[in-house]
Prior knowledge:
Radius of gyration: 23 Å
Shape: globular
Bound molecules: carboxymethyl coenzyme *A
Distance between the termini: 72 Å
Number of strands: 5
Structural class: mainly alpha
Oligomer: single chain
Amino acid sequence: xxxxxxxxxxxxxxxxxxxxxxxxxxxxxxxxxxxxxxxxxxxxxxxxxxxxxxxxxxxxxxxxxxxxxxxxxxxxxxxxxxxxxxxxxxxxxxxxxxxxxxxxxxxxxxxxxxxxxxxxxxxxxxxxxxxxxxxxxxxxxxxxxxxxxxxxxxxxxxxxxxxxxxxxxxxxxxxxxxxxxxxxxxxxxxxxxxxxxxxxxxxxxxxxxxxxxxxxxxxxxxxxxxxxxxxxxxxxxxxxxxxxxxxxxxxxxxxxxxxxxxxxxxxxxxxxxxxxxxxxxxxxxxxxxxxxxxxxxxxxxxxxxxxxxxxxxxxxxxxxxxxxxxxxxxxxxxxxxxxxxxxxxxxxxxxxxxxxxxxxxxxxxxxxxxxxxxxxxxxxxxxxxxxxxxxxxxxxxxxxxxxxxxxxxxxxxxxxxxxxxxxxxxxx
Length: 428
Ligand code: CMC
């Protein structure tokens, strides 16, 4: 297990008289809530590089040491020994479930995995070539028009019910977004399968034949879901929390999270990685791409490289790379040209001064696309798979915000750099 020791605890009050808050792990935080009231000054931190936007007890990341833990459990151990629904329970409720709690939770999720038949009719309104993420944003947002009994966010039972509904329905919605684009009939969930396997049967099953589950691929999908389940206050999670802070309904909050996740700097990167590797095509073309990534006049970035927090190897990337190798071997794809290009690219980048200086390592998306592609998941579904997994993190953070009840509306300030006040030119 990774050992992690907090850096020395500094004084409890800064020279300016601001209290210092100390968490369980990670850097301490200067509490500047009274800064404006006392000094008329704002803190300027675009991109929140030095800002703790909330207190949270869910996920811990130490990017310098490459540590990621859900409720204290290192991600490597969860990926190896747990399963997605157990991890979902852990994230949502704080502890691993007892046997009885696990069965009840699984049954609750199964009970809610169907879509209202009128929700299904929404899919037909989209163009067949619509991106699954576009469809997911819309359909998840539309759920708020169906579950009026879950919209009282002041009621803890309704909050929990909405959270479970979202976790339960997300694979059904994601799979339907895909099957609709192929022209195949939408598949219903099947409760004899576990969460990940059920997602796969909805993605790939055909109505005219039995679905044959490959346990190796189902386990790989379960692990992909575990690895992507939460990642503390990333862009999409912060989006969910900000929407939640206004009291917005849970379905609208998660729809906002999906929209944020879609961006290529966030969850959309796995799709971009595969596009990039395909464009590179052969190892001989790698130096050109590295040169482009280093060229400051070129907006191109090496997709799947770098992370705001990880200045060391992303622990998820290690697990994914290993699983990708196993699944490729299982499928007889040991010589997958994309994998060969990715491994060569990683080696070259890791020895390059530009990437070393900036501490740019492969992130979770670098190998996840190769794995998903090998499993037959089409490129445009990659981020949708990420969204299915991250829904658990989003609802856990959403529950935490509301269960705490002390977090008011998020309302950042700004440094105004526009025109000074001026008179409207009357009669111009
Ligand atoms: N390729 C080339 N240069 C890079 C890259 C990259 N992938 N990432 C960062 N840099 C450079 C950047 O140009 C800057 O250089 P300089 O100091 O000379 O101006 C320096 O490294 C620091 O970059 P930054 O933009 O300040 O870093 P950030 O923390 O704002 O951005 C990031 C993090 C993930 C958005 C960025 O590394 C990136 O765009 N990576 C590619 C997209 C990607 O793989 N995203 C998936 C992230 S992991 C999954 C998830 O959490 O959603």
